[in-house]
């Protein structure tokens, strides 16, 4: 999954074109990493809606980095 392409497709759907990519990580198995990220983000989020999690950028970065480290 290419993060830049995904962001571009979200902006196509948004009348405000307000999505921006602020951080991305590389992994050998994005399916496993995404599943772990969903679990941790759901715990940390103030609000969730499907695959959308309301968390701050700093907190999201911390979660993603910890998943990559295997913690």
The secondary-structure class comes to mainly alpha
Q: Compute the gyration radius: what is it?
A: 13 Å
Helix content: 40-55%
- Name the poorly predicted regions: none
Widest sheet: strand order?
A: 1-2
The coarse silhouette is globular
In whole angstroms, the N-to-C terminal distance is 23 Å
Characterize the quaternary organization of these chains. single chain
Arithmetic mean pLDDT? 94
What is the strand tally?
2
Helix-strand pattern, N to C?
A: HHEEH
Count helical runs: 3
Largest sheet: 2 strands, antiparallel
Strand content: 5-15%
Q: What would you say this structure looks like, in words?
A:
The chain is mainly alpha-helical. The chain contains three helices and two strands. It has a two-stranded antiparallel ribbon with strand order 1-2. A hairpin with a 2-residue loop joins strand 1 (47-49) and strand 2 (52-54). The two termini are 23 Å apart.
Quick recap:
This protein is mostly helical and 71 residues long. The chain contains 3 helices and 2 strands; from the N terminus they run ααββα.
